[in-house]
Amino acid sequence: MKHTYPSLATLGREIKTQTNSSAALVEECLKQVLEKNGPMNGFITVCSDEALARAEEIDAAIAQGKDPGSLAGIPIAIKDNISTKGILTTCGSKILENYVPIFDATVVQKLTAAGAIVLGKTNMDEFAMGSSTENSFFGPTRNPLDPEKIPGGSSGGSAAVVGAGMAPVALGSDTGGSIRQPAACCGVVGIKPTYGRVSRYGLVAYGSSLDQIGPITTSVEDAALLLNVICGFDEMDATSSPEPVPDFTATLNKGVEGLRIGLPREYFAQGLDETVRARVMEAVDNLKAAGAQVVDISLPHTEYAVATYYIIATAEASSNLARYDGVKFGFRAKDVSTLKEMYRETRSQGFGAEVKRRIMLGTYVLSAGYYDAYYKKAQQVRTLITEDFTKAFSQCDCIVGPAMPTMPFNIGEKANDPLAMYLSDIYTISLNLAGLPGISVPFAREGDSMPVGVQVFGRAFDEATVLAVAQAMESSANP
Amino acid sequence: MTYETVIGLEIHAQLSTASKIFCGCTMDFGTEPNSQTCPICLGMPGTLPVLNKRVVEYAMRMALATQCAINTRSVFARKNYFYPDLPKGYQISQYDRPLCEKGFMEIEIHGARKRIGLTRIHIEEDAGKLIHDRSPTQSHVDLNRCGTPLIEIVSEPDLRSAEEAGEYFRKIHQILRYLDICDGNMEEGSLRCDANVSIRPVGETMLGTRTEMKNLNSFRNVERAIEFEIARQIAKKENGETIEQETLLWDAATGTSRSMRDKEDAHDYRYFPEPDLMELRIDDAWIEAVRSAMPELPDIRVNRFVRQFGIPEYDAAVLTENKLLADYYEKATMGSVNPKAVSNWVMTDVMRILNEQKILIKDLKIRPEGVAELVNAVEKGLISGKIAKTVFLEAVETGESPKAIIESKGLVQISDSAEIEKVAHQIIDANPAQVQQYKTGKKNVLGFFVGEAMKATKGKANPKIVNELLRKYLDG
Fold first, then answer.
1. pTM listed for this prediction
2. What ipTM is given for this predicted complex?
3. What is the 3-state secondary structure (H, E, C) of A213-263?
4. Per CATH, which fold does A1-299+399-479 belong to?
């Protein structure tokens, strides 16, 4: 059974006016966790005692008339690849099964400073490599809407705990769709901000030029509120942007009147499930009815996006994951006698199959003699994909399409077919390559057992338009 | 057959910035292992590098000093390899788009100047250190050095002998010190050198197979190791063997080298652009700001010293050997009436004390103003050159100013002829036998009389006047 929370704005108001308390809210979450997490496996770590203690501190501060911040007393679930000081941060991997960071990620610092409370760390595909959360050393997460189905991935744990009501909001990370695709699977909202909008400091790197942290929530408004807190330049991240951060809640309800909405024809071609197509088109019709103008656009290099992504992301990953060598932290294989053996055994035993596959792929594409044919070529195609968007955005103000080509599949269904699995990111991946913002909003018709994720893409740093369109779509949806 | 040697050097210089290249850690040498570290230089998951601007400026200084072109856009790259002293599993370096390219430097070999091309100068981070002597079965890792900024200075294969290589390395060392960007301490590893060496028959234009020699941690070792390698390669060639491309480790203790790894297990470093750092962009304004803050370089200073102070080029070259010595000389000259005399003092007495006491010039108790006082006192005939030497030693010992020493000890020279006349007569009267010798033609007995006169005046008599008067009386 579904459990829902009032909006963050309402929760915040209730806690600040002491009609509700943070402690009561945390207890409500913990009760849901106790009831649901066993079978669903959304959390790897639950910080029950610490969260409750922190909630009581915040309640006490409020009682003393202090203002503990815009997210005072709100519990939040954090994907387990985001560094939390003193709290296990496993990345869903055996190799980090015992790794407790000594520092907080910038986003965690910002959330904590705004009064939010870390409720726990959520399950994920190992090192964010996957689209189903089946690649976790800690076992798969189940979809809150249907336990036989995958919750999507790699932020499947975050999407599932929000969808199931174990936490009002969560953070995920998105390298090729890892926020938007699980949000679509679990019937929640997930936004990937523009690359550089949110500091990556403390996000355990998978594909550094693609990774971005973002919120997973039950409403567009909650996502906007969280973005207000986590966005902004960070001197600890040289790739973070100095672009000013607007109040994303201020323009949420500006409507879509006169807005040009692009429908990329490549996103509605072969391979798209009919139900998904129907719901996306209904969502578009609703936007039209609300005054938006629909434009047919083309993103001609879409067909190369998946291949390009799997070269660039794995190349970066092969280097990013070199530090897990058993020397300094994490798992170290036992009974080894030489350095080479320690490296080989630690990494062979510590990484799962998909991670090893991607490390090998990435190592290969960077190897002498292959670099030009693969990595360099992929970077060139990446430029073409980015240019596709630049051209498209001269014809429209935002782009709408499906988040996933199909409805969520069953757990185990594609486990032995990595290529089929990779294709489930076909509509999300281009956005990471271009560094643009995108959101997935659930959209359903009366009687649907599962909603469809509808995506909205925007121009770089124009999360405001993305959110406004998503908000218009959300208010016209029928979940 | 006669062979020509072809040598290129790769020099790594640690930059003496206040903090590391990608984090805020300090870098004091010899501190507790792993005490100068943070999550970033330890490569903890999720950490990111942020470039220290001073590192770029230091590298730009070296580029400007060696006539390199500074690229307005350069790119950091990851060099991937596994080693326990490399916590991230990759070194952040620069690869196909380095900061600086195509420069040159002049060295002097047997009086002739030779231009040595610089291929590139790039920025990178240093790795940590492995410690093997704490336990018989385990190795320890000290990551204090991780993230220390380095520049790698790569020469063209323009060097033709061990001597040229040594001279080039000295010159690089000198410039780094002048620019105040590297302390140049080879024992602590602040400056390291690898040599690529090959030989070919004279007249041949193709390069021979090269070997790379590592661990050349002194000027002397660079020369010895290269000599050794040249001889080894020639011997192989003469025996009809082929020279393998390999990496060799120089052992200074035995004066030999051994193979580290051969081409078989050569690394594929899988360089690719570092996605955590933006392209490094440098505009003209930044280059100009660095240029305007550049200190005067040794070659230019030599010329100026010759021109401005009228000292021989040899003196100017010795005095400008290092920046602090040159500064010392220049300061002393400013207060004195005779720049050549100052040069003599600095080149002989000052440098002898530095060598004998193994101290740095900044710790020398006699300051440049003191040397100026000494020179002036001699020039004005206030004290003799001999007295000046004792005053100098006392100033070195006590740190008192020479002027004060001369006054307090009453060392001012006697130039009053009447007084010296009196002493001269006394000595002539007291030594009739020697007078007799002089008169019979043994003119060198004059030295005896001068010595006696100086003894009687405790060295204070003006030796010129003593000479004149004694000769006058003895001859008269």
1. 0.88
2. 0.95
3. EEEEECCHHHHHHHHHHHECCCCCCCCCCCCCCCCCCCCCCCCCCCCEEEE
4. Amidase signature (AS) enzymes (3.90.1300)
